[in-house]
Amino acid sequence: MVNYNAVHADDSADHFIGQPPPKKRTSPWIRIGLPVLVAILVIVGAVLGGVLGSRAARDNNNSSSSSSSGSDGDTAPSDPSAVASVKNDIGLFPTSSNTEFSIPLYPSTTNGAAFSTPTVNSQLAWPKDTFAPSSPAPTSVREDRPRLFAPKQKWDALPDFIKQDPYMKSWDKTIQDYANSLLDQGPVAYYMDGDSGILDISREVKQRVKALSYTYRMTTDTKFVDRVYLELQSAAGNSEGSTFTETDRWNSAHFLDTAEMAMAFGIAYDWLHDVWTDDQKTTIRAAINDHALTYGVDALNNNAWWTQNIRGNWNCVCNAGLTVASLAIIDEDDAGHASALLGLTIDNAKQNCAMAVSSDGTWAETPNYWYFGTMGHAEMANALITATGSDYELMTVNPDFKKTGEFHMHVYGATSMFEYGDHGPNKFSSTANSIMFYGDYYNIPQYSLFQRDRWDAAEPWAMFWYNPGLTGAYWDGKEVDGFFDDDLDQWVAMRSSWTDQNAVYVGMKAGSLQGHQTHNDLDVGDFVLDAMGTRWAGEFGSGDYLSTDYFASQAQDAVRWTYYRKETQGQNTLVIGGNNQLVTATPKILNKGSSGTKQGSSTVMPWEGTAFWVVDMTSAYDATSVKRGVRMFNNRRQVLIQDEVNSSAGVQWTMHTNATVSTDGTKATLERDGKTLQMEILSPSGASFTTTPSTGGDKDQPNPGITTVMITLDAGSNDIQVLFSPQWGSDVELKTPKSVALDDWSLDSHDS
Ligand SMILES: *[C@@H]1O[C@H](CO)[C@@H](O)[C@H](O)[C@H]1NC(C)=O
Ligand SMILES: *[C@@H]1O[C@H](CO)[C@@H](O)[C@H](O)[C@H]1NC(C)=O
Ligand SMILES: *[C@@H]1O[C@H](CO)[C@@H](O)[C@H](O)[C@H]1NC(C)=O
């Protein structure tokens, strides 16, 4: 089990930062075993013992019950000094090992004092950087080193913060454990991996170099410097026995590989500048120049494809790697590439990378590509600020960029992400820590508070991007529903709670099918559904990136749209006439509403309110009219999905699930993780569920264990209503909504 945040938890497994823990298939409470259960009780005990009376303890310290126990809020007065120390008292939250994204497991408590309004205590925050040039220029770097990400004064302040802050303490330990584990391992094996080149290798080198360089600076033990150099020499093709003869060793034809390697070398060069020998410095600079910067100058001067109208991760990652490497060596660069690049990358990233966030905060590619793109953006902006004193408007040129943390938080469901479209390659050091940087820069503490509880926070950027002066709970006062209306993506997220792993969460999207860097699926109307700690309706993610013409085109007849995971048939939506959706679709949001429900400071969220979203999907089909609506029902305990279709071809309602499904006419019973959810067709009468294994075709990847649940209907006018009822148990009354036409949906249209 890999559990970065739970300091008390069993951490016997390898600490390999940046790799999601393997998904396990049992209940978290069983799987995480005794150590974490003890930890939770200790945590709850500490919170309640320190701040609250004993009544709430009796109500809430049963870790195996859901937070739906309905206990009323405890209004114990909050003693300010207790509140200030409560971060320490609480310690860290364990993370679930049975969800793909290791959702934090919050103790169920109505302790409002522990989870207060997000604020920054400036006395505990970082000291201000003394380097503040009056007229910053990209090529004019600070004199002291490190100049990138973490100036000396931050390193100097770090040991005390690590002592005081349980998060920083745990991240520091994870990073140092990881660095130590690398000491007896050889460098990352260097080989060309088919068409995808050395991207994984570059990213792993970067991840290792960051942790090793960090650990050297924290310990001053030069064995970490030697280990960094071993990694760099291998990656530069300088090791004895290296088979490299060509200069283009970092695969500039797939420039991400080059850029990530350049970033790794830039960080190592800068952070260890005071211990490298002159020979080592010359060797590292030569590698940066020969294998990256020369190709970078060429790419930007000759308008390489990723420099032109690319609103996505490629532009961010490539410009960021070149910028960081250039800043690292600029004052020692005889070749002049570094200063040439700093005259090119910033404007290019402002026109492209910074514009990959839509007006509503959504990342233009997909929720997974957001990681790569925002990480590159944050690294580039932060490196420019620390090294030269300005971000040159990379952070503000797109006024909506600051909303992208909201996108990430809402796309993060109760068990997993609403992970539509392609997922991208292994992330390694592309974590969600970009939102810690954004949280601090834009003064949105919720972003950092959200991320600090996540398993992927534990890597060196967190040590500098997290603000140790933060206190409070990200969910305090936060609306549970999120509506994202930009035409590019149009999507909604509704949930019953931010902190209950058993919460009901529904994400549904419409939006344009093109304009996502060919990472989209034909998926207008697609949805995911979580309840009771389980994902019931889910996504397939990426197809095989190496399959024929996977990225070649996004036209209607593109080969991409013949792969099961990308075609409409492979989505949780309607298929009409057996055809794919039309790539020209321009769906329209017809109506939406939310009770405006906000979570309070408590992790115990009452089941209340509703939300709904109705979209016109007609333009995605060869049909007269197609509308889809989704709503929370019965105080968010149940979900209704309704479609109104007029078509001259037959309709297939489709959903994919990891659950075991048994059908009985209008009902389907789904079982997973020891939980049960029932689906019922309320309309049209006479329709019934069928199932089939989600095999796809010969050229598709297998989808083991996935079942397609379908309703097959004739041409004509169809009103399809499917009710999803998690089987909560005898204390929750399940209801059947009345039938209301989509045009008449409102907040109270389904009451009574
Ligand atoms: C804890 O909650 C579970 C589930 O609600 C229940 O079965 C169990 O009896 C409770 N235990 C205690 C000690 O209250
Ligand atoms: C099935 O489970 C896997 C692993 O958790 C997940 O990645 C995938 O999205 C799920 N698929 C569906 C169709 O729910
Ligand atoms: C759908 O078909 C029904 C029945 O033929 C008709 O009454 C209705 O007006 C149609 N709606 C749309 C939006 O085409």
TrEMBL record:
Chief location of this protein within or outside the cell: other
Signal peptide per UniProt: none
Annotated InterPro entries: Chondroitin_lyas, Hepar_II_III_C
TM region positions: 32-53
Protein localization: Cell envelope
Annotated SUPFAM superfamilies: Chondroitin AC/alginate lyase (SSF48230)
Region (Disordered): 54-83, 683-704
Domain Heparinase II/III-like C-terminal: residue ranges: 496-680
One Gene Ontology MF term: lyase activity
Biased segments, Low complexity type: 54-82
Domain of life (superkingdom): Eukaryota
Ranges of Polar residues composition bias in the record: 685-695
Record flagged with keyword Cell wall biogenesis/degradation: no
Keyword annotations: Membrane, Transmembrane, Transmembrane helix
Xref: Gene3D superfamilies: 2.70.98.70, Chondroitin AC/alginate lyase (1.50.10.100)
PANTHER family xref list: CHROMOSOME 1, WHOLE GENOME SHOTGUN SEQUENCE, HEPARINASE II_III-LIKE PROTEIN
UniProt protein name: Heparinase II/III-like C-terminal domain-containing protein
